[in-house]
Amino acid sequence: MKLQSPFCDGAAGSKIIVTTRDAEVSKMMGAGTLVHNLEPMSNDVCFQVFEQHAFRNVNRDIPPNFESLKEKIIARCSGLPLAGEQQLILLWMAEGLIQPQPEHNKQMEDLGADYFQELLSRSLFQKSSQNNSKYVMHDLVVGLAQWAAGDICFRLEDKQNSDHVQLGCFTKARHASYISGKYDMVQRFEAFSEVKHLRTFLPLSVDYPSNYLSRKVTFDLLPKLQYLRVLSFNGYQVTELPNSIGKLKYLRYLDLSRTEIRSLPESTTTLYNLQTLILQGCEYLKALPINLRNLVNLRHLNNSNVGSLKAMPPQLGRLTNLQSLPNFVVGYKRDRVPIPSPRDIAALKIRECDRC
Fold first, then answer.
1. What range defines the domain where residue 107 resides?
2. Cα–Cα distance between 109 and 46 in angstroms, integer?
3. Would residue 315 be called left, alpha or beta, if left means φ above 0 and alpha means ψ between -120 and 50 degrees?
4. Angle at Cα 295 formed by Cα 289 and Cα 299, nearest 5°?
5. Segment of 24-33, 72-81, 302-311, 325-334 carrying the highest mean pLDDT
């Protein structure tokens, strides 16, 4: 209202243009039906603008690998990649940013939803023009967040493209993200050898048909990152995980969606702090570890679109904290997995809600 009051005394016939990202602001200003919604530029137009500014009136040749960088440039111009609300809440939980409040009779997921809506109302997030159920952050907000985070968070591309960055600064890092490439070899992750207490390893996909990750990253590098809480291989053509993944005792969030994983090592069942296990779209996954019931803190097991899964492991009723399980597969005797009893199934206490 303080913003609106100076405009109430304008001369007759005056016109005022107010720009805002929030429709509620336009209503408050009395715009009524005189609202013009500006749609974001298409990826092609966005890239043309970048190309003109990068090479117009500059004696500089277009680099030979420019085409291969096109998708990454477009992704950066659009701010952060799309992100479902539920995904962010689960990541916040894994990082310890949401604490249970039993005295208010609210689950962590409900608290996270409250937090998200508060940030959305303050325009820290905005709905995607591509998908109404997903959200992005404006590049200005991204820049502010990066400034506030300092050396605690980094995007791998920013560090690799900065000549003045010293490797020593990686020792302070806690959260790392990067745009996954079509072929991600171990050389790309050399800087991670300097990271001692990394909590987040999060690739951000630009939807290549297939992303390939060096086996040395999964088998040699990641087991050394013993303080990880968030680990994602989303979209990589990973076929197996090392047995040493069981040493990541602090891990709370493991995303293997759209990988070619065939099975999970039994050591996965020793990740007692694990809250979220995402297996969505793992078409080749045939079985879950027999002792999955040991993951007593598991809250979300996403096994949707896992067509090859033969049966669920026994005694899942012990997972009393489980909040979501999209697909329960009842096996046959030939699958050599004991069929859970109706009592076990009932004990899962799966809630049917919009979040699940």
1. 41-150
2. 36
3. left
4. 115
5. 302-311
